[in-house]
Amino acid sequence: MGKRDNRVAYINPIAAARARGPVQNSGPTIQDYLSRPRPTWEELKEQLEKKKKGSRALADFEDKMNEKWRKELAKNREKRLGDKERDKKSMDKEDKKDKKEKKKKEKKKSSRHSSSSSSSSSSDSSSSSSSESEDEEEKKSLKKKRKRKKSSARRASDSSEEDSDAESKNEKDRRRKRKAERTYKDSSSESSVESIGEEVLNVSYDF
C-alpha cells in the first residue's frame, strides 16, 4: 500500500483575477454618490422649521392628554376640598360641644363657691384678724433672723481680721528675733577677732 498523493495545484490569485476580467458592479459607485441631487439653502431652512414645529398629530395628542389630566386634577381637588370641609365641620361641632360642657362645669363650680362663700363669710371675718396677727408675727421673726445672720457675719469677718492681724504680728516678731540673733552673732564674731588681735600684739611686745 503506497501513500496517497494529497498535493493540490497552486494557483496565483492575482493571475486568476486578471484572467477573469473586470467585475460588473451591481451597486452605486462613488461618482453616483457625489453627483446626487442636493437641496438648496432655502429648502433646507424650510425642512428645519418643520422639524422645530413638530408634527400636528403629536401636538393634538398632547393637547388631549393635557385636557384629561386637567379634568382628573379638578375632580381630585373637589374631593379633597370636600373632605377638608367635612373635617372642619366635625371639628367645629366637637369644639362647640366641649365649650358647652366647660361652661356647664364652670357654672356648677361657681354655684358651689357661692354657697360655700356665704357659709364661710362669717368665719372669714373672725379668721382675718387672726391671720393678720400671724402675718405680723412672721414678719417680726423674719426680721430677727435677718439681724442674727448679719451679726454672725460681722462677727465672722471681725474674727478673720483679728486672726490676720495676729499672724502679721507673729511674723513681725519672728523677723525681729532673727535680726537680733544675726546682730548678736556679728558682734560676737567681731569681739573674738579683736581679742585675737590684742593677744597677737601682746605676744609681739613680749618678744
UniProtKB/TrEMBL annotation:
It comes from the Eukaryota. Residues 59-98 have a biased composition (Basic and acidic residues). InterPro entries: Fam133. Residues 19-38, 45-207 are annotated as: Disordered. Residues 113-131, 189-199 have a biased composition (Low complexity). Residues 99-112, 141-153 have a biased composition (Basic residues). PANTHER family: FAMILY WITH SEQUENCE SIMILARITY 133 MEMBER B-RELATED, PROTEIN FAM133. Belongs to the FAM133 family. This is Protein FAM133 isoform X2. The gene is fam133b.
